[in-house]
Structure formats: structure tokens, C-alpha cells
Amino acid sequence: MDKKLTVAVVGATGAVGREMLKTLFDRNFPAAKVRAFASARSAGKKVPFGSETLIVEELKEDVFHGIDLAVFSAGGTTSLKFSPHAARAGCVVVDNSAAWRMDDRCPLVVPEVNPQHLEKHQGIIANPNCSTIQMVVALKPIHDAVKIKRIVVSTYQAVSGTGQKGVEELERQVRDLFNGREPENKVYPFRIAFNILPHIDVFLENDYTKEEMKMVNETVKIFDDPSVKVTATCARVPVFYGHSESVNVETENKMTAKEARILLSRSPGVSVYDNPRETMYPMPVPHAGEDPVFVGRIREDESVANGLNMWIVADNVRKGAALNAVQIAEKLLARDLVAVRDKNAFASD
Q: Among 16, 49, 59, 333, which one is most buried in terms of CB atoms within 10 A?
């Protein structure tokens, strides 16, 4: 595409929005102009973009004319209100919230897994949940090779998944405990410092949390394979950045641990970090700030004929949010899809 692009970051003052700006700059995304938007209370603030600073503009319904591509990280309510206005103005939206993920009009995309789904976009593309992204990046090569029948996943999710307020709560509670003060819970229902909460998002009627059902439903949509059965338990842990997952898969055909290591080492977006004898395995602290999905503890499940266990770690703010969104934008550009084909797709929203 020869056209010089104007790109917007919506929610630019938040942790993920700032990371989106950094990622656009670091990856040298070919934008002639980048604009930053946020709510009225943040208008006028400055946010970094490389060595420059951008003045944050107030997000309004009519700001999208002349903008080719917008990456949103401003929450579901904001996205539901403003994304259709952007699409109707001819701006393609990549949205990081849960607002559009299960909407049939919106592809749910992880570029290493299902970039072909972008071909059917109608103006809004959904960025999956952070915990789903890292899991499907690691599992799609295995699914393609030996077909996954069932996935059992337990997550250990960092407080940054709740945003800056989660990071600040953990910091505050640790300081309070070290200084002999009783910590206050403002963000989470219980203390998160030196604790684990088996509870992310709200509980549903089936006693799973919304976060757990996101992993179930999003995996099926991304794989485009309803035969894959998924069950999840999601927990919040006192880690600042980086989600970890214990994943067990049962497959139709046999794959050994050695075969899995070789396959994943050749897979895009995956870094195999696995040598038990040298105590080499992924952890959130050393891999914070890095782009790949790290996989280790790969071993055969000896309780079934065809099963594998693995440990998956990724930076939830980078690959789990900002990087995946920017990679979607890059794929749109490479496939010449930075245009809304049907501006009436969201006319009623």
C-alpha cells in the first residue's frame, strides 16, 4: 500500500496504550502520523512516542475521519460506543477489549495462528484475551500436527492484567505489610500480596469466571474448531508482569515431548526454553518485556495414551495486548486490508 497512513491509539494514557505507542515506534510501523486519544480528563496530557511526545486529544465520535487505523485499549464500554463510529468513518479498528471478541462480524485474531480470518473483517478486529493469546500461539502448531481433542489450563496471572491499579495495589500492600500495617483491598476482593486469588472477573451461573469462559470460547473461535474442548481455572498471583499457564492437552495422534520441542522451536512467535536438568524453564520475571511466548516443562502425560503437559509464559502487556494488536495492524497492511469494505456493517451500533 502506497498510501501514507494515519494511525490512532485510543486509550493512550493507560499502561497498554503507552505500550502500543512504544511498540508502533519500536517496530517502525509505517505511519505518516500517529495521534493519541483518551477521555476528556486526559486531554492535553503528553505521552511518549519514541524521542517525541504526543499531545493527547479528547476522544469524540467525529474524530475518526481521515484516520486509517485505530488501535483501541480503552475498555469495553468505550469501544462499544466509539468503534462503530470509527468503522463508519472508514477507519479500521483493532480493539483490545472483550467488547467485540465473540461478535460474528469481528475476526478474533492472533497473527501467528489465524491471520486468514482478517480477510473477512468489516471494520473491527478483536484482539483476544491475554491468557488466550499465549496459549493458542503455543498450541496451534500441535493442533495442526496431531489434532488437539481437549485442553485443561490453569493460569497464574499477573496483577498488570487488571491495569495500573492492580500494580499499584500490590506495591501498596507489600509496603504496608513490611511496615507492620494492615493492607487495604481496593482492587481485589482479598489481599493479593503473598496470596493467590482463584478468581478473575465475575462468577457466572456455571460457577466458572468470565475470564475462564473467555479462554474456552475464544480458543474455539480462533481455532475455528468447535470439536476442541477447553476447561480453564484462572488465578491472580502476586506478580507484576507476565502470565504463566500450566497446560495439558490430549491429542488424537501421538506426539512425543521431543517432537513437540522440535515443532515448537520452529514455530513463529514461540521460544522453547526447556532443559530440566539445567533448571531451565520460563518464568515471568526474566521474560518480562520480551516479545515471544516461552514454552518449557514439555513432557508427556503418562496418564493418557496421547497427552502433553507444558508451561507457557508471556508478558501479558506485550504479546498479551499491545504487540498482538500491532502485529494485527502489520498483517492488515501486508494484506492490503487497511480499509473498511462495508461501512454499514455497524450502522445499527
A: 16
